[in-house]
Give the backbone structure.
Amino acid sequence: MILRRFLPILVLAAAPLAAQNAAPGRSAPTDTSATALDDEGVRLGLQLGLSSGALSYRDGRTEQAVSGILRWAPVRWFVVSTTPSAAHATVPSLTTGGRAVSVSGLLDVPVTATVSHSFDVQYAPVISGGLGVSLPFGDAAMGFGSGQVGSELEVGAGFSPTDGIWVSLGAGRSLSSASTPSAFSTGAGWGDLSAGCSLTEKLSVNGGYTGDIGPVDATVGRSTSVNVGFGYAVVAPATLTVSGSHGMSGTAPQWSLAIGFGTAFPLLGHTSASPLSKTFASSGRAGVSRGP
């Protein structure tokens, strides 16, 4: 499997902050405000972030990746983002006494354009849709890329049932055969459900479930995993996020851990319609070609 979107691990680290809710009925910030935010709770303009994560599999395979996050939101309802990443993967020998194989390299670079709409009504609902393109910068021979331009469609929705609590639902599907499989999904489509809350003015917690949608390879099975994360507002607008996941079936990693820091993550107190898989997309899907 290729580390298609290791940023998702890195973004998974950002999910705790995204899990914060926007207070029901809160007025949307204006673009001229000093703290103007987009519909995902991130400041308008150009924002940057850095994330790093690691994955481990039941058969002994391991992967580590580091990603840069570049995010530009000229207005509240439109965002363009990219997450160039590099990864290192180690596969244990299949023979007794053999040596493990390790490879390192750049990954395919995902570029995503997202449009969203927030409703200034009770429960502060938000909906979003995005189109992603994967540029073939990774070495396909080493399993770090597809060798072709790929594309993917994503949709999401989120709301805040009460002040300090948020819920979001997301789904995505590959639009081309060139899209490489992610660490957390083996099918052409995926979906996730997540929820979170604010523990203090600076600390938040969230959890979620991710799984394949649609037909999957019968020899591999449906990949599912659960995750949990924390977000801490260090100094506005910079935030620190830490998250982890546990694979329950299929080829999902047995364990993963990610940490992120920067201004490209949602601020506390805002609901995000972006699914966790999007967050993990560039930060945790690397590795050499492998079986289940």
Q: What stands out?
A: The longest strand covers residues 62-75. The longest helix spans residues 7-12. The two ends are 8 Å apart (CA to CA).
